[in-house]
Amino acid sequence: MNQVFALVDCNNFYVSCERVFNRRLEEVGVVVLSNNDGCIISRSNEAKALGIGMGVPAFKVRSILENNNVEVFSSNYALYADMSDRVMQTLSMFTPEMEIYSIDEAFLNLAGIGDNLTDYGRQIKTTVEKWTGIPVSIGIGSTKTLAKAANKIAKRTDDANIVVDLTDSNDIDKVLESIKVEDVWGVGLKRAAKLRYAGVETALGLKNADTNRIKREFGVVGVRTVYELRGISCYRLAQNPPTKKTIMVSRSFGRAVDDIEELKEAVACYAARAGQELREEKTAANFMTLFVMTTHSRPYRRIFNSDTLGFPTATNYTPELINYSLNALERLYRSGTCYKKAGIILSGLVPENKIQLSLFDEFDRDKSRRLMQTVDYIKNMMPESNLRWAAEGLSQPWQVKFSRRSHRYTTRWDELPEVA
Amino acid sequence: MEARVDKVYKIDTMKKCEQPLFIADVPAGFPSPADDYEEEKLDLNKYLIKNQAATYFVRVTGDSMVGAGIHSGDLLVVDRSLEPEDKKIVIATINGEMTVKRIRRKNKKIFLEPENVEYSAQEINREMQFEVWGVVTNVIHSV
């Protein structure tokens, strides 16, 4: 049976999430900023039309934003994650197999759905848009790379209802000719520069390239891309993403921090978050790396410092993680230094039911496991309870700023949308 | 005295008698007569939410719908997947403003009707930016 893939991609996802609950934002310029309100990470079409680029630092476009009354939001990840879940849950009804590729993209296996893929795609699109309020673009192709290309075409068409199906297209070459080689899935800027130098400018050029030459220059990965453009499927759906090899929790501070007590709070907070993630994945860590980074204010160089340690026994017990991280911090800390960022990386992850006990283990592992279960349960059931470890501090003056964050409309009882 | 075989019995492999190492830890127990009747616990989520991906909670402010039992501060369960048929209570937006009202379709016209004599119905006209955001399925009211 022939392979058929659809790539469903949410349009301007973070901005679209804001618009679902704030209908006044429809048809006005909207942007969403990254952590600490630093860079622009999502733009409405109106904002794009003003020439505001992706990833641009917000201060560089402040006057454009102000002069055009663009609505500016801090990122609201609680909302975006919940809306992403809803989109993915809706999509899963239309296919036996899908791969969640990112927070706002999924590949669907549509093999055996029938001839009228465009209609089916429209049905998917209408349903997602009705149930979640998030507009999506859909591209269909006989390989994942072609589905990506079809999606690209769908995105740049003005017709909001279009679904692009390349599986029965006779002029597929014409479509590929209109796509720049750097926009082909998996090519990237570096490879694109090399390809252009060799005279390959478009997706069509790459499709017709000599595979031996491509193999010499770019290896088997490059050849796969060529085959995929020719309609020979090389990539299947990665249904089960590999379990995480490391867990990293790291944030920039809201302002420079030089007080070790404040740093300790931040580090304890990241350790607690990392512990929770370990338990969610049912894993335990053997190693911990703590890193700190100073501000970058001339003439001083930015200093990056880190410390890695091994636990006597693999653990996911938060008080233990906090203790070790604070010890590491005391070793790294230099007084009189302004820190901008800290983070914790947990590695050597093992399934929590396969922990090798150390001979001299003095913990009551069973008791600590039950305590963590209780803590996680309370945190999940009552997010607004703000349950936390004392070491995390109360006022947390170092916290990242989300000065323009909208309500967490779907995950907090006290922030639900209001109707009159 | 000479030993002799009196009778030969065939081994019966059909019968089994496994001896458990420990008999169940019920000193004077009698199996609960309710065991056979155990059912799942009642789950309010299942009762209130038919389509999880499309269901949202919304908080009410104001008293325009008290006649329908919807009071200020109440929680509404809203399902976006349902069709806003005539007489349904809906969350609608007019010019970007979210409101809860009863939708009426009469002679190809659409009205949003409050359930409180102090408010009047509103006819939707072409100049308005109008859309139905979702259909209200339940009211949760604390007493």
Question: Which properties best describe this structure?
Answer:
heterodimer; A: 420 residues; alpha+beta; Alpha-Beta Plaits; DNA polymerase, domain 1; Dna Ligase, domain 1; five-stranded antiparallel sheet; 14 strands; 37% helix; B: 143 residues; mainly beta; Umud Fragment, subunit A; seven-stranded antiparallel sheet; 1 helix; elongated
Per-chain topology:
The complex is a heterodimer of chains A (420) and B (143).
Chain A: E1 5-10, H1 13-21, E2 30-33, E3 40-43, H2 45-49, H3 62-67, E4 71-74, H4 77-91, E5 98-102, E6 105-109, H5 117-132, E7 136-141, H6 144-156, E8 163-165, H7 172-177, H8 188-197, H9 203-207, H10 211-229, E9 247-257, H11 260-280, E10 283-294, E11 304-315, H12 318-332, E12 339-347, E13 350-351, H13 365-381, E14 418-419
Parallel strand pairs in A: 2-4, 7-8
Antiparallel strand pairs in A: 1-6, 1-7, 2-3, 5-6, 9-12, 10-11, 10-12, 10-13
Helix pairs in contact in A: 4-5, 11-12
Chain B: H1 44-48, E1 55-60, E2 75-79, E3 89-94, E4 97-106, E5 109-113, E6 122-123, E7 130-140
Antiparallel strand pairs in B: 1-2, 2-7, 3-4, 3-7, 4-5, 5-6
